[in-house]
Design brief:
Elements lengths: L23 E5 L5 E7 L19 E2 L26 E4 L9 E4 L4 E5 L4 E6 L2 E2 L5 E12 L7 H6 L18 E5 L5 E3 L10 E3 L3 E2 L2 H10 L5 E4 L1
Parallel strand pairs: 5-14, 8-12, 11-13
Antiparallel strand pairs: 1-2, 3-9, 4-7, 5-6, 6-7, 9-10, 9-14, 10-11
Length: 228
Amino acid sequence: MRRALLGLASGCLGLSLFAAPAVAQSYNNPQGQQIASAAPSGNYGGGFLQFLLTGGQRAAYNEPGAAYPGVSQPGQPQRAIDPVFLRQEVDYAGHERPGTIVIDTQRKFLFLVEKDGKALRYGVGVGREGFAWTGVEKISRKAEWPDWTPPVEMLKRRPDLPTHMAGGPDNPLGARALYLGGSLYRIHGTNEPYTIGTSVSSGCIRMMNQDVIDLYGRVGVGTKVIVM
């Protein structure tokens, strides 16, 4: 199986944050094998023309054309994950209601807002230049170890990719996927965790598998997602 990836880009979130210590965690793959984590502890779309933070309206997608997972090029170097991107509870100065997901694409963080001025902060990978979008969406569907079918446009650019890939550790969508509205954008895991903290994808938000499993268990369909 060829390895692949995905993510999302653009924006800025003005928050006041103070990191708390992180704790190690493990997760299970589809075969039930426990995998130790290095870090502690979600139809074709696009074209929505409403802007971010306008009373819960839908997203403004700036990506030119179709939204789909971005696939890494062969030989992409691996790197260590900066500890700042490990999951941790932080102080949060925003005004969103608890349970809201806020994604700061400039700083590469996803926040799950909690009560009393706190939030869980996760490191994420986001979209590369030309695949940026900002907006407000809701989680419309959740999937465990989702399958992946690259769209025609991607296969034209990368004919070496499979036309379909079953869910599992080699799948670019990782352990979980949280689908955003009616678009193809997702918050999902990745089989290339070293891309966390970078701009690499074609519009989706990627997380380390242990982190997306944690987030998946904390949020439900209908959760508000703000991408900045």
